[in-house]
Amino acid sequence: MKVAVFSAKPYDREYLNAANAAEGHQLKYFDDPLDAETVALAAGHDAVCIFVNDCANADVLEALTRGGTRLVALRCTGFNNVDLAAAERLGVKVVRVVDYSPNSVAEHAVAMLLAINRRIHRAYNRTRDSNFALDGLMGFDLYGKTVAVVGTGKIGRVFAKIMLGFGCTVLGYDKFPSPEFEALGARYAKPNEIGSSADIISLHCPLTPETYHIVNETSLARAKRGALLVNTSRGGLVDTEAVIEALKSGQLGGLALDVYEQEADVFFRDLSGTIIADDVLQRLVSFPNVIVTGHQAFFTQEAITTICQTTLRNLSEFEGGVPLTNEVKAS
Ligand code: NAD
């Protein structure tokens, strides 16, 4: 099957080629993301293979169908960048990678939490400049603290398990509570209780119209003063302007972001030699108690291997006309 692979980085090519050895598809790689300007590149391909910041809105999907494309294969879990209703209307199937390594993302969330709490990012820079002073580096014990996990699915549960291992009390919030989460020794709580008692809030729910800006001025005002916020899920969950105000007032004690609302314009490329036009991002990274990583939580050898193998299997299922194990449908 002919597949146009968008946003193809060197590591994507290496791991997709390795996985494709067993499947034999014709993969054509494009550096550019899929969007209205690049969609013409997909003409004549049966499928497009896309990542988190590619755009498969209704216009792009219509252009894809005109070019003969019948499958959108996401090489990620989230599917907020695909208009599923338009895909269904146009007869375009959508598949994703449901479960590659929840550990990769949960472990990165923990790494970011530890770094922001113990000021590792500042200590790293200081000691490189022979500054061994401790002023401004004080954190707090995680032991005994209360951690809120918003979205208690696969990643949220791994994160919860790790935090329980630190001796934290873990509270969960989920639209669809799961017994597996409670079996870990955590419990569900209402947003008000989470707000009043959580020292740390970590986001692990998908971005949907319902969860858009779930962290906003109101929820931040309800939070415990000085709480730490970790977002490794999707940038749109957080109202960035509101978070900046909460950081300025001290209401939010620290912020660790692996994802950012406007990340499509900056992430996954080296812009170190350019002037960044995004003032909000520049303001964010100027805070000493904020760390940003460029959507790298998934980026482990194990996760990429599984992502690529599953993506190739998804393509082969479509080609073989068998039921699609990882199909995403409009609800
Ligand atoms: P999952 O489907 O296993 O879990 C998501 C959970 O969120 C489910 O329990 C679901 O019930 C819950 N949820 C849905 N709507 C909700 C709402 N309105 N309020 C509260 N909870 C709600 O997904 P997962 O594999 O754990 O992944 C979670 C998210 O992590 C993905 O949607 C994706 O956005 C993000 N992610 C990020 C990276 C990264 O590299 N940063 C990598 C993979 C996934």
Notes on the protein architecture:
The chain is α/β, with parallel strands linked by helices and 331 residues long. It folds into two domains: 120 residues, Rossmann fold (3-Layer(aba) Sandwich), CATH 3.40.50.720; 191 residues, NAD(P)-binding Rossmann-like Domain (Rossmann fold). It contains twelve helices and twelve strands. Helix 1 crosses helix 12, helix 2 runs parallel beside helix 3 and helix 4 packs across helix 6. Bound molecules: nicotinamide-adenine-dinucleotide. Nicotinamide-adenine-dinucleotide binds next to helix 4 and helix 6. Belongs to the D-isomer specific 2-hydroxyacid dehydrogenase family. GO terms for molecular function: D-lactate dehydrogenase (NAD+) activity; NAD binding. It comes from Caballeronia choica. It holds the Pfam family 2-Hacid_dh.
Order of helices and strands: EHEEHEHEHHEHEHEHEHEHEHEH
Name the bound molecules. Answer: nicotinamide-adenine-dinucleotide
Structural class by secondary-structure content: alpha/beta
Quickly count the domains: 2
Mean pLDDT: 97
Pfam families: 2-Hacid_dh, 2-Hacid_dh_C
Keywords: NAD, Oxidoreductase
Protein name: D-isomer specific 2-hydroxyacid dehydrogenase
GO molecular function, one term: NAD binding
